[in-house]
Amino acid sequence: MSKMKSQKLFIKTLGCQMNDTDSVHIAEELKKHKNYNVTTSIEEADLIIINTCSVRDKPVQKLFSELGQFRSKKKKGAKIGVCGCTASHLGKDIIKRAPYIDFVLGARNISKIKDVIDVKGAVEISIDNDESTYDFASSHTSRFKTNINISIGCDKECAYCIVPATRGKEISIPPEMIIEQIKKDVQSGVVEVMLLGQNVNSYGRRFSDKRQKTSFTKLLQEISLIEGLERIRFTSPHPLHMDDEFIEEFSTNPKIAKCIHIPLQSGSSKILKVMKRGYSKEWFLNRVEKIKNKVPNVRITTDIIVGFPSESHEDFLDTIDVMKKVKFDQIYNFKYSPRPNTSALKLEDKAIDDKTSSNRLTQVIELHKTHQVELMHSNIDKIVDVLFENLKANGEVSGFTDNLCQVFVKGSDELLGKIVKVKIISASRTSLKAEVLKL
Ligand code: SF4
Questions:
Q1: Which residue, judged by its Cα, is nearest atom 2 of ligand 1?
Q2: How far apart, in whole angstroms, are the C-alpha atoms of residue 25 and residue 111?
Q3: Which residue segment(s) compose the domain that 156 sits in?
Q4: 366 and 398: one domain?
């Protein structure tokens, strides 16, 4: 490595946790093969990368103004590259619109970063490239936590979603590679892992080496045997694949953290059908009820889209009805945003006007706030386990409960990396205050 001059990389990440992990992989690949080290200063950087998101139109529109900013701030000779989902679907059009861009690398071509950075005008965006067995570096999100991809791509065809067109078909990463990676991370002090995939609970249906199929439940069982690993989290499961075996494992396995993201999208069975989600309002409520019966302190988060084409007032009231029945702890809510390469584009004649969509979004947000206050306050006086991760400047230490509530206590760095019993003394809509019971 001494031969190669050390250079500086500035990387900006938009979008989801998979993009966060991809950005860590990009940085680690460039460190290993090209001796780049990450800097937080655009002006200092020899290479500037933006890892993009295409799930809605807004981040795509923002991209070109962002690139303009990079161009004006960069030092002489510094390169600019565009990666991620927008790179996958816009490809060479990015260079056409911004000729000062040096390369474009799609979300399924991360392992090729070392090959494209020195090729002016390189465009690598194949969504058939198989990186499921590529040995990427660890993606620690803190000293005690790590993110691990368990699959790439998605086989679903949700009518509003651009992901299959930017990340390609679903391939599972071999379980032995996942286990090996987690073991290595645990040796370096990690106690919590987040398993990532577009559809984690359809894991094991296809491997690139045509080995025998397996299941997400089996993978969870294997991972929970790793000594020193305390907590297992995962995102995003699909409600359709929440079979009883999975719910049983989720409920009874002590290492699986009791917070689950179940993307609803709409509460109307009619709209779910048009969205090609594959399940109904009744199935969704049945799965939630089953989980809540087995895990009373479970926290449930979700995604909701309002204003999907043909969504009537009654359809919207179905979404509100599901919210009232479930009382979600966290909701990622959006107005429908038409995306290229999606089947929903054919429904434009049934589009919902923006004023109505905004009004529905406001109703979802306001109702959710009332549920959050109620749910967070129900934690007061409870005794819970918290994994402490951060020491704040104000002397507080923060961490998360098993079911993903953020908790603040008075304490010192002695708490960091430990799972400690605390008593909840007060609550706000988004976090809790507690006192440490015993170390
Ligand atoms: S499951 Fe549906 S919403 Fe999720 S990534 Fe796949 S196509 Fe998109």
A1: 158
A2: 8
A3: 140-257
A4: no
163 lines ligand 1 (CB under 6 A): yes
pLDDT in tens, 316-333: 999 999 999 999 999 999
**Are both 64 and 172 inside the same structural domain?**
no
Q: Please give the distance, rounded to the nearest whole angstrom, from the Cα atom of residue 163 to the centre of ligand 1.
A: 6
- Mean pLDDT check: name the lowest of 175-179, 265-269, 369-373, 392-396: 392-396
- The best mutation among 19, 151, 163 to test binding of ligand 1, ranked by most ligand atoms within 8 Å of the C-beta, falls on 163
| DSSP calls for 208-246 | TT------HHHHHHHHTTSTT--EEEEE---GGG--HHH
DSSP string, 307-336: S-TT--HHHHHHHHHHHHHH--SEEEEEE-
Q: Please indicate, yes or no, whether residues 107 and 30 belong to a single structural domain of this protein.
A: yes
Q: Is residue 270 part of a domain?
A: no
CB of 401 within 6 A of ligand 1: the answer is no
Residue 232 has pLDDT above 80, yes or no: yes
Compute and round to an integer the Cα radius of gyration of the chain: 22
Comparing 62-66, 172-176, 375-379, the range with the smallest average pLDDT is 62-66
Looking up residue 74, the CATH number of its domain turns out to be: 3.40.50.12160
How far, in Å, CA of 216 to CA of 225, rounded? 15
Q: Please, what's the b/e burial string for 186-225 (b: 16 or more CB within 10 A of its CB; e: otherwise)?
A: beeebbbbbbbbbbbbbbbbbbeeeeeebbbbebbeebee
Distance 59 CA to ligand 1 centre (A): 18
Domain for residue 273, yes or no? Answer: no
Q: In what order do the strands lie in the sheet with 330-335?
A: 259-261, 299-306, 330-335
CATH assignment of the domain containing 399? 2.40.50.140
Domain count, the chain: 4
Looking at 354, 374, 394, which one is the last position of a domain? 374
What CATH number has the domain bearing residue 148?
A: 3.30.750.210
Judge if the beta carbon of residue 199 lies within 6 A of ligand 1: yes
Residue 297 pLDDT > 90, yes or no? yes
Ligand 1 mean position to 20 CA, how many Å? 18
pLDDT, tens digit, for every residue of 302-319? 999 999 999 999 999 999
Q: Say if ligand 1 is within 6 A of residue 277 CB.
A: no
Mark which of 65, 91, 124 sits at the end of a domain: 124
pLDDT tens digit string along 351-394?
999 999 999 999 999 999 999 999 999 999 999 999 999 999 89
236 Cα nearest atom in ligand 1: 4
The pTM is what? 0.95
In a domain, 269, yes or no: no
